[in-house]
Amino acid sequence: MRSACTSLLLVGAFGADPNADKLELAVRHDAERAEMVAQINAIPGITWRAAIDPRFQGQPIGASKPLLGVKPGAKQYLDDAVRLGTVKRVPVAEVNDLPSSFDSATNPAWKMCAKVIADIRDQSNCGCCWAFGAASAASDRMCIATNGTVALPLSAEDICFCGSSDGCQGGMLPDAWQYISESGAVTGGQQGDGPFDSLGLCSDFSLPHCHHHGPAGKDPYPAEGKPGCLSQNSKTCPTKCSSSSKAPHADFTKDKFKFTGDVVTYPTDADTIAKAIMDHGPVEVAFNVMGDFENYAGGIYTVTSQKQLGGHAVRMVGWGEEGGTKYWKVANSWNPYWGEKGYFRIRRGTNEAGIEEQATSSSSDSKWSGGVLPPAPPAPKGCATALSVACGEAKSGGPNVCRGCCDAHESQLEKAGCTEADWDKWCQETALVV
Hints:
Blueprint: H1 4-13, H2 20-41, E1 48-50, H3 74-84, E2 88-89, E3 102-103, H4 114-117, H5 129-145, H6 156-162, H7 173-182, E4 257-260, E5 263-265, H8 270-280, E6 283-290, E7 296-301, E8 308-322, E9 325-331, E10 343-347, E11 360-362, E12 367-370, H9 383-391, H10 399-408, H11 410-415, H12 420-433
Parallel strand pairs: 2-5, 7-10
Antiparallel strand pairs: 1-7, 3-8, 4-12, 5-11, 6-8, 8-9, 9-10
Helix pairs in contact: 1-2, 5-6, 5-7, 10-12
């Protein structure tokens, strides 16, 4: 890395160089960023660690703006959608038994969906965070609601470039969920090197991997703005699966998955949001990225900067507590080398940076359909046996998870002679055990 002293010597030796002003400005930016990092780490009781990322050499604070794809006015847009009835607002929940920590990916009741939930994606140098947060959270919820029958990632490529005319230039959270509900989304994973590549999914994300904000660490990808990761424009809305796709995911129309139910948002209440995650899976949230967040390197993030850069959508997967500070665990879409292996933690219960005021997802009673699924196993004989076979693993997740599993296997249970009253009673009995 060229040091500030080296840069100054170059400016002095080549005073007539037309790049001299640019070099001087770059040195100034480097000094400002180093000063910010030092100030953050010196704050008494600070719960997170800041560090300098080599990709920011010569760049001003705020270089992350192109990735922050939640458009201005997003909170008002969501409130207007509630007023118009296109989005439903969940009431504040009465929560008495919330555990001190919870992680969707390691929840035993959802072990059949762990691979889907743990998938950390990469939005490239494109402001498609609004689509990535929805694609990931919807994939999680679809898997959980079908008791692992559909353990597949939904395509961020489809949602980003078909769910909004602006794509990389930004979008709104409810638009992504409404697109999935109304048009459906095909399957699709990462850029050719993700955990689902062997399946030949319909439409993987086509823009390149990038190194994002924070220390480079072992990240092998080029930094944003550098060769291999230049600023990206929106692609054309795909209408057919990629050449690498294979059956049963090679037919774009037949590979669409959607849900029936409402698009919902949650009150700015940490316990209500936590209960929604624990009962039905991760949700998409948005927050205001401040100037200090570019330097996040680990820990429980709290705002220390007054400079707001833009809105960013992410996926909230769980919560916990460390050193007396409650936090949310949040999956970012800046690849698994960023932050804490692709995640960051942020203070919970204080609406830190607005993280608790736009939580959005499919409703708890949503049912998923579409795609080409593997054939269902033969219906077991007897209602009790059918319930145990279909939803035995879901029992430990509590009555809501149990009912969701039964709903997903409705046809199979009916063939075995089960009624909705049967599985409701069975799930309530489960709740007593829990």
